[in-house]
Amino acid sequence: MGIKYTYLILPLLLMASACTAPIDIDTNDSEPAIVINGALTDEVKRQEIRIGRTAPYFQDSPNIPVSLAEVTIRSSDGNWYELLENDSLPGLYQTIQPWAVVVGETYQLQVTVDFDGDGITETYQAETTVLPPIELDSSAIVPIDIMGYLHYALNFYAQDPPGKNYYLVKCLLNDTLMTYKISRYIIFDDTGIDGQYIDGLTVRYFESADNWEVSTIMERDSLEYLSPGDEVGIEMSQIPRSYYDFIFQCQKELYGENPIFGGPASNIITNISGGGVGFFVAYCIVRHASIVPDAADTYSKMYSSEGVER
Amino acid sequence: MQIYILFSEKSEIKAYFYDFYKTGRMTLLRIYIGLMALCLTNIAYSQRYTLQGHVSDSLTNLPLSGASILIDEHNIKEIADENGDFSLTLPQGSYTITVSYVGYRTYVRKLLAGSGRQLRIRMVSDVSLQEVVVSAQRKDEQLTRMYMGVEKLSIEEVRKAPSLMGEVDILKTLQLLPGVQAASEGGSGFSVRGGSPDQNLILLDNTTVYNPSHLMGFFSIFNNDVIQDLELYKGDIPFKHGGRLSSLLDVHTKSEVPAKFQATGGIGLISSRLMLEGPLGSKTSWLVGGRRSYADLFLKLSSNASLRRSAVYFYDFNAKLSHLFSDRDKLDFNSYFGNDYFGADPGEFIYGNSAVSLTWNHVFSEKVFAKFSLNYTHYDYEVASKLEGSKVRWESAIKDFMLRMDFNHRLNDSWSLNYGLSTILHRFKPGLVLVENMDPYQVDGNNALEHAFYGGIEQQLTDKFCVKYGIRWSVFQNIGKATVFNYDAQHESIDSTVYKSGRIYHTYQAFEPRIGLTYRINELSSFKANYVRNIQYLQLANNSASGSPLDVWFSAGVNVKPQQVDAISVGYFRNFANHVYESSVEVYYKRLRNVIDFADHANLMLNQKMEGEIRTGTGKAYGMEWMLKKNSGALTGFVNYTLSRSERTIPEINDGKTYLAPYDKTHSINVVASYAFSERLNFSATWVFATGNPTTYPTGRFELNGEYFPVYSGRNEYRKPNYDRLDLSLSYFPRPKPGKRWKSEWNISVYNAYGRKNPWMITYNQDDETGLPYAEQLYLFGIVPSITYNFKF
Model pTM? Predict the structure, then answer.
């Protein structure tokens, strides 16, 4: 239920009339570590793993990928998959054949590479188990008045199974993923809704395209604007708690420490063994899409008596 | 059992006593009654005569705490207490009483003892010293006071210091004292000798205040019109108080009202204040005071209907009633209510404190004085989303009921005995979330009893040598109904135990010895040393740097051991130039046990299994504090320097390596100066310097889908940039019109006069073009000017 409170707390933070200024931070650079990332899904495709290395935080060039690694995935049903490095995209390793992960199976990733260049190879491992897909019935775009302006809420309808469950939500606008970056991933757990039917829980709010004119440049950069007829897709997955924590921590640490609502800066917890960073996970995806309703219809429903005030 | 009958409507109080009856735990009640009986028998007939008196300013009627009273014939000395009251025991006869106080004409009067009435002494301010600050202290108080590490501030001193946005704030001025640090820029949270803000016990007229802040911490709840003075005990806490490791902040509201009705008020940029006070007959006095911020009133002018419905404000209200039943009995009622409100169409956030107390002061005999009080404090907040389709309400509260009895037994001129007891019933409601169309989610509440029994002796061994020693026995009991989770070695919950309502299911007890000595080297200098042990049973579930109003307090219990500190300190105190200058140097060393920190990425909000996030270890803090203060003359103020260190060692944090506590500051310098150009014009300046707070910086990064995530250094391995700031203020007092009671003051303040950008928060962003990360500091205040108008009639 974490998502809701964030909406309430953010405006409070903005109240302080604060200013920003650049600051130079001088730190010692930490030893490079291997970065391994991969999310396998139950959709038939060439599954991918990315491998790179960490860099000093304020280095003025991008991080470097790691090539020439031997990458394999072993499934608990006895299957074994080899991943080969992409010819044009160094550090991207893909399975030779398209395949999909299976619910209940455990997958073990093994990466062998001479990371530190001393002529001896190191081995890094990670393991993940695929949880059942969420029982998603549907989703809906619901018009909503926030501070006198038209907004849209993206609601979903699903059955939460008994026991602790963690969910990942991604949104698509006209088939384009809006939540490509981890900072935009929507995650929540079933605290307070355990085992219940989730009857229209809001996972995200959108601006109406009508508000574009009155938006600040910052808002235009960071918010999504919807027009009637747009198709908003939702991709939902049940994920393991460790991956939920990983996303949560990535989102928390991305911008640094929040003095009011955050704790001390702490390293993001990985499931890669051997001193690596990053995360290896496999999950199922369930999709649904809905259309942004017609404006006239919306306004008549929302403001049956008083009309919109600007 | 008057108290019980009186409050029988209050179900909580009833339940409290009911718990005792049901569980057969009558012991405490018996002790209360027993002590009452003991004192009643003490009212023995005596040939001796008790002289009680009250010392106040002839014009303002403000009590002169610390005034010195001398009976020439018997060389009996006494000091007026915080309320300006004193009491002396004399054989019948006639005497000469001499009362002196810095800045006032000495009062001398012949007395015939035996009449039994109260002596009211109105001191006349010395004309030649009128422009001088009258510090509410005895001249040599810092040399003779039995306690160490005590800082006293009168409201006059606080008012002189420049203020942020014109809001005179005792907690901001407090942060200028040696060994005291602001927990964050502009905030009212403070750290004492390297401790966390939740290690400070804050009392308003002896009632605990759990969150002393307004507007997300930027202003304190203390209305400067209503406050008389404050005392901060940096570790060496008086026997009668306890329950916190670092300090006691004892704030007193005005204890004396003027002879005639009087109004005091002010109009500022943030809030306006009004206080009314006066007598009601000859034995009763009253005071009411309030403040409200009004920035949100401008929102009403908006053309946007939603904005018109928005509100951001705080208010607070103090009310006092005092009645003298007889020479021996006085009843005081003190209350505070305050709230903060942030609301708009999508949601609202409300938080506030209530603190109420009823105190009966009774003189049993010439030797025994007692105070009985019943206190209630409450802190709660509510966050609500009002959005259609996702209505949520989140509530949290902590409530205390306290009963206490304090006795002061003056055995003879050189022996004084303090003893008493207190019981607190704590009720915690950590969190309840109500989601529309869904079952409520609740973090189970729990209850606890915290008792303390104390006894202490202050003894004048020789002319030069004073000692105080005593012990406090604290008992902490968790009471059902409660669900307690059991954790394995990895802090994962394995199962839980449910305890029935009213059952005491866990008890901690501890002895807290406190010893101190004062050696008066000569007229102008003294040496002091002490050792104290303090135990803390309640703490905040908060690991943020600034603290937030979303406070949840949690108690010691099955899974959480009480925190403990053993502290020693020594000090040398030297006054110069007939006590015009005071100087001191104090050294302290503290050793902490069961010190609490939280796991990396701990979830402290609405977490049933919050205790699984706790990590405990040891800590230590040490430092040296220098202070030089000038008390009188056109120029007054102080300069202090603190050199200190505070660190923690917790096996599961920072790989078990020792790390700096979040409030560690190596160097800290404060300069506070006030210059009176004339009776009408006063100029003040404050300059603050402190080493930057310890912080954890990213030393590496990894990339994921175009975003860079940090790889951090060890915990608190780096420091933020040093902090410094200059504040200025100018006060102008227009000449009052002849024959009019109206007096006024204009105050112009500039906060952060040279516009230093002190980082409050350091954030990381990615460059729009290169996509590479860079650091940015967020600073809260540029140059902040303000103007305030204050009045009195």
Answer: 0.82
